[in-house]
Amino acid sequence: MNKNIIADTLMNYNKQGVLALSLGDYEKALECFKKSYYIESEIKLSQEKGKTLINIANTMMLLNKPEQALETADEALDIFKQLNYKQDYLLTLLLIANIQIHLKNFKQSETILLKMLKETLQNNVKGEIYLSLHEVYLKNKENYQAQESITKAIQYFDSSQEKNKLTQTLLTRADFFKTINRADLAAMDLNKVDYLSNEVTL
After folding, report:
1. 132: nearest Cα among 168, 94, 105
2. pLDDT digit string (tens) for 143-155?
C-alpha cells in the first residue's frame, strides 16, 4: 500500500469516526478510530497513533467505559512523553485527570492538576486546569476552593480571549452560586454572559 493510499485511508477512517460521533453512534466511531490505530501502529506513525488513542479514550468515555478510557489515555501519554510533545502531553494529562474525576478518584485528579499548573504557561490551559479543579472541590464539598478555582478559570479564559470558554465558565459559576444561595452573585455572572453575547453579536 503506497503512502497516498494510506493517507487517504486514514483520513477516511477519521472522517467517518468524527461523523459517527456527531450522529451519536459511538460504537461506530470507536470502530473507525481503532482501524486508524491499527494502520498507524503497523507503519509506526507514533504522533498520529497518540492522537488516535485520544480519540479512542474520549469515545470510550462517551460509552461510559472510564477504566478502558484511562488505560488508553495512559498509553497516549507514554507516546507523547517519548516524542517530547509537551502540548499533547499536557492535554492528555488533563484528560486523565478528568477521567479520574469520573471514577471518583478525586485525590489523584487533584495531584495531576496541581502538578500541571507548574508545567504550563498557557493561560487557556491553566483555565481548563482550574475548571477541572473546581469540579474536584465541588464533588468533595469544598465550596471555598471550588469558588476560588472557577474564579481563576474565568480570569485565565478572559486573559486568553477564549470567549466561548469564558461564557460557559461564567454560566457554570452562576449555577454554583445558586447552589450556595448566592442568587445575587449568580445574577452578576448572567449579566456578564449577556454582555459577552451582545458584544459578539455587535
Report:
1. 94
2. 999 999 999 999 9
